[in-house]
Design brief:
Blueprint lengths: L1 E2 L5 H16 L5 H13 L13 E2 L6
Antiparallel strand pairs: 1-2
Helix pairs in contact: 1-2
Length: about 60
């Protein structure tokens, strides 16, 4: 995972928590887990703006 721009630390922590929870707890593949985490952030009033969650992209092979 990489960030395309500097993002708020608290927002990053929230996104990563949701991302890893999606992969580990829910068994999602990385792309699906990232999408689910970004949607979860978007649905929260505090993190609704794309600045907080849209900067993150996956790179490389996950297996």
């Amino acid at each position: 995972m990489a960030s395309l721009w500097k993002v708020d630390d608290r927002a990053t922590a929230e996104l990563m928590k949701n991302f890893y929870q999606g992969m580990i707890k829910d068994g999602l593949r990385p792309a699906a887990a990232l999408r689910a985490a970004q949607i979860a952030m978007w649905k929260q009033q505090r993190w609704q703006e794309p600045y907080y969650w849209a900067a993150f992209v996956l790179q490389g092979e996950w297996k």
